[in-house]
Amino acid sequence: MRFLFLGDLVGRSGRTVVLDRLPGLISDWKLDFVVVNGENAAGGFGVTEDILEATLEAGADVMTTGNHVWDQREALGFAGRYDAFLRPANYPQGTPGRGSGLFIARNGARIVVANIMGRVFMAPDLDDPFRCAADLVESSPLGEQADAVIVDFHAEATSEKQAMGHFLDGRASVVVGTHTHVPTADAQILVHGTAYQSDAGMCGDYDSSLGMDKEEPLNRFVTKVPRGRFEAASGPGTLCGLAVEISDRTGLAEHVSPVRLGPRLAECVPDFW
Questions:
Q1: Cα–Cα nearest to 4, from 27, 25, 24
Q2: Of 234, 228, 229, nearest to 211 (Cα)?
Q3: Domain residue spans of the chain
Q4: Residue 255: CB atoms within 10 Å
Q5: End-to-end CA distance of the chain
Q6: Residue 156 DSSP one-character state
Q7: Three-state secondary structure call for residue 259
Q8: Do 265 and 183 contact (CB within 8 A), yes or no?
Q9: Which of 70, 219, 228, 239 is buried most, with the most CB atoms less than 10 Å from its CB?
Q10: 174 with 5: CB under 8 angstroms?
């Protein structure tokens, strides 16, 4: 199975590069399933229903989120209406929406996708992500209820992300980190067969500070006095993510590669498709 994950969409630049390029990638790479993290898609803060629908229409099968999921208050209303819209699964019981789901890929495979949020240096402080992950893989064992298990672990600390990768190694097909907006150089297959990357990076303008126009972050670092709001940077976007070939037999990773397409970072595409 051919799987593509795209990191946090940030603002119009991120939306544009994904909406423009994703249909072609699905066609050219014959992708079976696509997950996009969209939690910063609306001006850098949250996601609207229109943006969700446009991303799904462009070919994404699932949109994951993170700590900014409720920044656009309308998300509280539409979260429960879309199976393909996930908020972190370790929110307390009764939170609108869902944190995981079972989906059917283009090749007919049964795919479990889960969105889990870390707790180190993160707010709000949600339920134990490791207990949440354990419950997920115990209820949907790889090779039994699911042909593949995909986990978007939205977290700040690389140590917590790496720990989650090892915790799920052999029990999930892919564990990919989001939130920090900078692609890490550690895409790999762990010893028991799980594809892993500490952070997929963002889809957005890399001539920025984590996707935000750089002037206000610079001002706050230098003067300590806010002059305005953070605004999403508006330059040309770079698409970043993770490509994984998943075994149809075992549900584990066979090949993995970072994906980078755009003007700011060295381009990288999978050589196995």
A1: 25
A2: 234
A3: 2-204+236-261
A4: 16
A5: 11
A6: S
A7: strand
A8: yes
A9: 239
A10: yes
CA dist., res. 96 & res. 12, Å (int): 26
Lateral strand order in the sheet of 174-178: 100-104, 110-117, 148-154, 174-178, 195-197, 188-189
pLDDT digits (tens, 9 = 90+) for 42-72: 999 999 999 999 999 999 999 999 999 999 9
Beta bridge pairs of residue 245: 2, 255
Residue appearing with tokens 């977290």? 155
Residue with tokens 């799920």: 168
* Catalytic residue positions, numbered: 68
Q: How far is CA 252 from the centre of its chain?
A: 19
Q: How far apart are CA 197 and CA 96, in angstroms?
A: 29
Quick: pLDDT tens for 104-122. 999 999 999 999 999 999 9
Element (H, E) at 22: helix 11-29
In this structure, are residues 240 and 206 in contact, taking their beta carbons and an 8 Å threshold?
no
Q: Which CATH number fits domain 2-204+236-261: 3.40.50.300, 3.60.21.10, 3.30.540.10, 2.40.50.100?
A: 3.60.21.10
pLDDT tens digits for range 71-95: 999 999 999 999 999 999 999 999 9
